[in-house]
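Changelog-linked ticket: adenosine-5'-triphosphate example.
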Amino acid sequence: MKLIPLAFKNILRKKTRSILTMASIVLPLFVICILGTMIRTLEADPTGGKGMFRLIVRHKVSLANFFPEAYREPVKQMPGVAAITILNWFGGQYIDNQPRNMFQRFAVEPESFLAVADEITIVEGTAQDWTSDRRGVLVGSLLAKRYGWKIGDQFVLKGDIFPVNLELTVRAIFKAPDETSVYFNRTYVEESVPWAKGLVGTLWIKADSPDAVARLTRMIDERFENTPYPTKTETEKEFQNGFISMLGNVKLVLNAISLAIGLVILLIAANTMAMTARERVTEIAVLRTLGFPKSDILTMVLAESLILALIGGGLGLAFFSLMFPGFRQGLLESPMGGFAAGMKLFPEVLIVGFLITLAIGLAAGLVPAFRSAQREITDGLRQVA
Amino acid sequence: MTIPIKYNIRNLFVRKITTTLTVLGIGLVVAVFLAVMALAEGLTRVFTASGSERNVLILRQNSQSELQSGISREQMQLVGNLPGIQKDADGKPLASAELVVVLNLDKRDGGSSNVTLRGVQEKGFALRPQLKMTEGRMFVPGQGEVIISESVTKRFKGTKSGEIIKFGAYSWKVVGHFEGGGTAPDSEIWTDVEGMMNTFRRGGFSSMLARTTDRAGKDQLLAALSADPRLALEGKSERAYYDEQTSTAAPIRFLGFFVGIVMAVGACFGAMNTMYAAVSARTREIATLRALGFSRLSVLASFVLESILLALLGGLVGCVLGLAIVKLALSGVTGTTNFATFSEVVFAFRLSPELLGSGIIFSIFMGFFGGLFPAGRAAFTKITEALRQVG
Amino acid sequence: MAEPFIRIESIVKQYVRDTQVLTVLDGLSLSVEEGDFVALMGPSGSGKTTLLNLIAGIDKPTSGRIAVGKSEVSSMSEAALARYRSENIGFIFQLYNLVPVLTAFENVELPLLLTKMSRAQRRKQVELALSIVGLADRMDHYPRQLSGGQEQRVAIARAIATDPKVLVADEPTGDLDAKSGEEILILLERLNDEFKKTIVMVTHDPRAASRAHRLVHLDKGVLKEDIRAEGREVGLEAARSAVVS
Ligand SMILES: Nc1ncnc2c1ncn2[C@@H]1O[C@H](COP(=O)(O)OP(=O)(O)OP(=O)(O)O)[C@@H](O)[C@H]1O
Ligand SMILES: [Mg+2]
């Protein structure tokens, strides 16, 4: 411990080197934090925990197949169903296919929709305004801000799966964990696209207890097993994870890249420590001649490595925290916009970033520290720097 | 007068540990860059290799993909008679009306994903001559039989020859496998379209693919399609259709560049550190060289060169590492979902010689920028002062 | 008669390189009285530095016994040796070996960090040591701002800061001009005289050796000559003859 002030002085001795080493930690750590945030976002539950109590029923073959609306009644009668609604993916396009104009569009049944989607709070307009207007649309507040939509504004969605151009009027704006969707009345679609009548993409169910969730999953699928439209029922959480698993093993890729970046920082820091320790062989031998025990030398070299890493890492984390809102904003406009909406400044990411820094500081200093402490004093004194 | 390169090489070997650590750092950066770009390139290649310029894909207006499109039987008849379409030996148009549906299948490594099930007409194969049967036999129409690309079989459970794909009342027997030379059908399952329409109770098709006689024929067909508003269809060359989908790889490419550049900056600083240390350890040596008559410029060049050599070594290590990763760890097929078609694209990592070359160039840049400032310091030290310096 | 202060009994120091055994010290015995000032001479490679390192406890003999005061140096553990060095030995190097990032004051304070002294006590001690070497006014200078002779004086201040009984010096004037060397020698004499330090000094310089009270001549790891001063100093003549022989 006595030599820790000396560790600080050593860092100041080679300023260029220390600055370069710290700088080489800042940016990569920034990237690790971003990747970590992405991983964490992938793991996050966009329904804010409600997904555990909610179920999605879709056609067993895939989400792109429809099944009859008539399925709703028998399901509604099953014990444990607190609320049920119809949720159809509309697709289509708003203005053009630019990334900034991509968001999710759903054709729903307004009254029952609000009963199931209870994480939604309407902040402008009223539920009544929306449900009573067949051409009304309920929009997320993030989208309202992005496009400057106000209550009463109109916009057009060009259909693709359903060949119709919907002329929608903003009737209500909502806040929710995910605010990048719009919801409108499915009867409007059905009126214009006759073949779509009576077809359902998904049923969305709120269960009244956790037990009911498992029971319903089984019951619903068994009920329709041998019909021309077999179903697959899963919790909303599983359903969301399904999308992520469709992307391939993203988490593995992100983790692997983070690991590689960590290794690069480690190599750079280790290089600095190796150079520093080598230049100070004689000095360390002198310290030991003066009577400083091996443990003091070990601590000093390790401390130097840790200080360098922690300053670099601290700057990296600060830089990340500062840049994050802007970065997220930028990403919102990119092809990853929908995903970026779920990104937050997760404290876990900062903690992991700090731990990585700590680990790098220790690992980079370990070998030079031991070698410095173990070297024979006479050896060290004979070495010409 | 230039300082012999031998001098630089020896110096790199003298600083074993530092050189090794720096080389490994740069190598790792290059390897990660290559691996991510190989992923993007593999994915892009599926689209760029798919689609012929002469084939025209016909979709409903405004449809981004086949999955969103729909074509009725009547429309199909009308399209078949449009000008520009090549006639086969039997006098019928060389065209195939097709139905695509996505099947949600379980992946072998966990999770599930959508795979395109394509129902084709007889001419569907002639339109895609790259398809080769590799195992089993062709499906018999109307029997609920399918053939599956080998790549899909590698990625999805229950898709081997002889196995049955079952979704409640739906079931298909796998009777054979094919291989599409890395093109789009490699991500698909094929069956006959009429049987499939029965199964799914569909009255219409999704899309139509037609071979045109030549460039003029193509223009003729495209013009005829857009001239008839009642059809409400649009055509584009198959190539153009797939080209639009290359944007699927854009986020991966972005990730590759983003991570690559940020890490390169880090590695650059690392190289700079190494070179600064090299310069300061050799201050007297440099001064001696200058006293011997070597110019500032040759000292500068010598150190920049040394840094580039160092980075180049890293680049080579990175290429070897990247090749090893891609050939050993990532040799199989992988896949991701193309959200334009809402189905899985199966592809292999592709580390082309061009990509390896860009990795090397990338490392040279790191070396150049990493060496420039330290070399500047070396070139501008005062000879007299440097000679006086101890050790 | 009391036991001598430094007792070296038939020590052997060997280095094994590959299969070759290099015997640097070959059964050497030597005693040094408390308060003595011994000059160690001998041709290059004769084992002077090795012997000095053994006394200072920074190296261990292959066999034999070394004792300094009550400390059995040759049988001590690493940790005990470190404490022994800190409490009993002041080491003076040919190349001063000051820590470049520390000021003169901080360099001298360094060994005091190993004691239980308070900050104020340390300050007093450092000021005392620096005033003994005549550099009280250079406390805040860094080593590179000092001349060689001054650097060596700071190094001596560092060596005496903990008030050790023994000072060992390896060619302390080897890197200095005659005048600075002379100042260092005067300083060492004064430390021996006034502060009763036992000094063992390796040197090649007969003029430096002439100031000692006793001159030990080493050759190929054995004691060849041992001259005791009749007066206060061995004198230049004896020192010269030692070099020649
Ligand atoms: N660690 C070691 N390994 C091998 N041989 C060593 C080692 N340390 C010292 N020697 C050898 O021991 C012999 C004595 O060395 P020492 O440093 O004691 O000589 P010296 O009398 O101080 O010489 P000089 O006057 O040149 O300083 C030399 O031959 C040297 O090469
Ligand atoms: Mg010596």
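Closing comment: Example verified and attached. Chain B has a mean pLDDT of 90. Residues 33 and 238 of chain B are 32 Å apart (CA to CA).
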